[in-house]
């Protein structure tokens, strides 16, 4: 199934290439700007009916051109409008100069703007392509607007937010509404950019979709279209062994709960059988807490190696509550030819020797899924984590290529990346998923889908999305026990 344009995430460079291609193909570029500015004005009028005055801040490029069009449209609607410019408007070129000429409002220097009660700011200073800190004069305006509590409608992206990384560049507007065009950009979906954008509206301004599709890279917003075709089917002749056998490894008697959460989640997502592999010292405790999940004693790597000769064992989850150390490393080495989700303690066990982990899974198809949060990511990929020139999607993609693994870089803006460069940003997770054990449930969900034969990248994307769905259904106050029981396969 192809992914529709609504889930594309174009980088600023890719969007610039689209603009150039559209102009080269004979499309009226000023017509695109006209439609963009009109869309901004319509959104501002629709969502800010309380405005006494629309203050349009116009930058020195095409984003400013969109602002001049929006200012004209707002004036034609009967609204009071004030326009302020950054830089010398006489130096504008091309479509931006044409837009300024067509705007009947005189403009003043942005330094002269002083917020007043009833203002709504239309921020058309910089678009998604900003890659350097905003100049001091803009930082001062942002500070004044923020202090006054003025509502902001941003054009393309709030000024000061990096369109590629979603990071504030010195200072950034907090928008009530952001109006962008054709597709969202990474900065709309990555934190903290996502929170600075407010509600995002995406307007189709008439650029042919073939041009957008032709210049889009491999980054997407996580959506069922990415993985629906890979979901396992359960026919009328279904049998538990055909639905896969998931194995989850338990830690010692004081840390067994995490593995049980993973086991339940793996069952709920559709695995036909789930076995909790437990050390002898935790068998009794686990036995008293399990029903449909089976239990097997596995104390050391020798016992594990003998057991996994059974090819019906389909996928494995190691890490939740397992313990950090040599035992985890030996178990991972024994499992290196099998689909494995490595989480929590499993990841931290390789913090001193990450290359030893990567070498185990370097050949063949992708069968390792790593699920690090920010701290765990930095332990496995310290140089990538420390590179401030990279955004989260770039970091995850580089890590995935290095590890020959699918990397689920967790957070409010979880990024799923594959070794071949594909990546998706997940946006449906509610904030109350930030609770102890939530990651254990996610690991079990990924393992359950791997056990049913899904490819690693699609399994990870599907599990992350359904994890968010389950959290949204449960609502505020959820616990991880609730979450494991709320998982749905479809």
UniProtKB/TrEMBL annotation:
Pfam entry (one): YjeF_N
The reaction(s) this protein catalyses: (6R)-NADPHX = (6S)-NADPHX; (6S)-NADHX + ADP = AMP + phosphate + NADH + H(+); (6S)-NADPHX + ADP = AMP + phosphate + NADPH + H(+); (6R)-NADHX = (6S)-NADHX
Cofactor(s) in the UniProt record: Mg(2+); K(+)
Keyword ATP-binding: yes
Domain YjeF C-terminal: 223-490
Binding site residues for (6S)-NADPHX: 62-66, 127-133, 156, 258, 321, 373, 440
Binding site for K(+): 63, 123, 159
Gene3D superfamilies per UniProt: 3.40.1190.20, YjeF N-terminal domain (3.40.50.10260)
Domain YjeF N-terminal: 15-213
Gene Ontology biological process terms, A to Z: metabolite repair; nicotinamide nucleotide metabolic process
Superkingdom assignment: Bacteria
Residues that coordinate or bind AMP: 410-414, 439
Note on how the cofactor is bound: Binds 1 potassium ion per subunit.
A GO MF term: NAD(P)HX epimerase activity
Keyword annotations from UniProtKB, A to Z: ATP-binding, Isomerase, Lyase, Metal-binding, Multifunctional enzyme, NAD, NADP, Nucleotide-binding, Potassium
Listed EC numbers: 4.2.1.136, 5.1.99.6
Purpose of the protein: Bifunctional enzyme that catalyzes the epimerization of the S- and R-forms of NAD(P)HX and the dehydration of the S-form of NAD(P)HX at the expense of ADP, which is converted to AMP. This allows the repair of both epimers of NAD(P)HX, a damaged form of NAD(P)H that is a result of enzymatic or heat-dependent hydration.
Assembly information from the UniProt record: Homotetramer.
UniProt record similarity statement: In the C-terminal section; belongs to the NnrD/CARKD family. Belongs to the NnrE/AIBP family.
NCBIfam families, per the entry: yjeF_cterm (TIGR00196), yjeF_nterm (TIGR00197)
Protein's recorded name: Bifunctional NAD(P)H-hydrate repair enzyme
Organism: Metarhizobium album
Name of the gene encoding the protein in the UniProt record: nnrE
């Amino acid at each position: 199934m192809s992914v529709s344009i609504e889930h594309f995430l174009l980088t600023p460079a890719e969007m610039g290439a689209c603009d150039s291609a559209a102009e080269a193909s004979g499309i009226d570029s000023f017509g695109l700007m006209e439609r963009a500015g009109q869309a901004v004005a319509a959104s501002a009028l629709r969502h800010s009916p309380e405005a006494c005055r629309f203050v349009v801040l116009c930058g020195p490029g095409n984003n400013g051109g969109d602002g001049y069009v929006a200012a004209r449209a707002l004036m034609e609607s009967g609204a009071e409008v004030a326009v302020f410019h950054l830089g010398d408007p006489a130096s504008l070129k091309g479509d931006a100069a044409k837009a300024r000429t067509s705007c009947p409002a005189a403009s003043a220097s942005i330094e002269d703007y002083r917020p007043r009660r009833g203002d709504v700011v239309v921020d058309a200073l910089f678009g998604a392509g900003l890659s350097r800190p905003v100049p001091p004069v803009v930082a001062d305006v942002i500070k004044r607007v923020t202090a006054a509590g003025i509502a902001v409608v941003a054009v393309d992206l709030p000024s000061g937010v990096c369109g590629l990384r979603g990071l504030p560049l010195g200072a950034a507007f907090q928008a009530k509404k952001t109006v962008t065009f054709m597709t969202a950009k990474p900065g709309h979906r990555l934190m903290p950019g996502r929170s600075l954008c407010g509600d995002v509206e995406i307007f189709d301004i008439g650029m042919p979709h073939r041009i957008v599709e032709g210049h889009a890279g491999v980054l997407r917003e996580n959506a069922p279209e990415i993985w629906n075709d890979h979901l396992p089917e359960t026919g009328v002749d279904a049998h538990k062994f055909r639905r896969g056998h998931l194995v989850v490894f338990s830690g010692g008697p004081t840390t067994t709960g995490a593995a049980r959460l993973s086991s339940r989640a793996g069952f709920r997502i559709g695995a036909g059988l789930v076995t909790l592999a437990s050390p002898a010292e935790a068998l009794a405790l686990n036995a008293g807490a399990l029903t449909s999940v089976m239990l097997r004693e596995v104390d050391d790597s020798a016992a594990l190696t003998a057991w996994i000769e059974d090819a019906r064992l389909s996928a494995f989850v190691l890490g939740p509550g397992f313990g950090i150390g040599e035992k985890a490393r030996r178990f991972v080495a024994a499992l290196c030819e099998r689909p494995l989700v490595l989480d929590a303690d499993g990841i931290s066990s390789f913090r001193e020797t990450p290359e030893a982990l990567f070498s185990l899974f370097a050949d063949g198809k992708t069968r390792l899924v790593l699920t690090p949060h920010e701290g765990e990511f930095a332990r496995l990929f310290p140089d990538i984590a420390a590179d401030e020139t990279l955004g989260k999607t770039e970091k995850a993609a580089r890590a995935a290529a290095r590890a020959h693994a699918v990397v689920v870089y967790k957070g409010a803006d979880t990024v799923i990346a594959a070794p071949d460069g594909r990546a998706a940003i997940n946006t449906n997770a509610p904030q109350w998923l930030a609770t102890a054990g939530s990651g254990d449930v996610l690991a079990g969900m990924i393992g359950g889908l791997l056990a049913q034969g899904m490819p690693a990248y699609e399994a990870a994307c599907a599990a992350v999305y359904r994890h968010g769905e389950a959290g949204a259904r449960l609502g505020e106050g959820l616990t991880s026990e609730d979450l494991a029981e709320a998982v749905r396969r479809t």
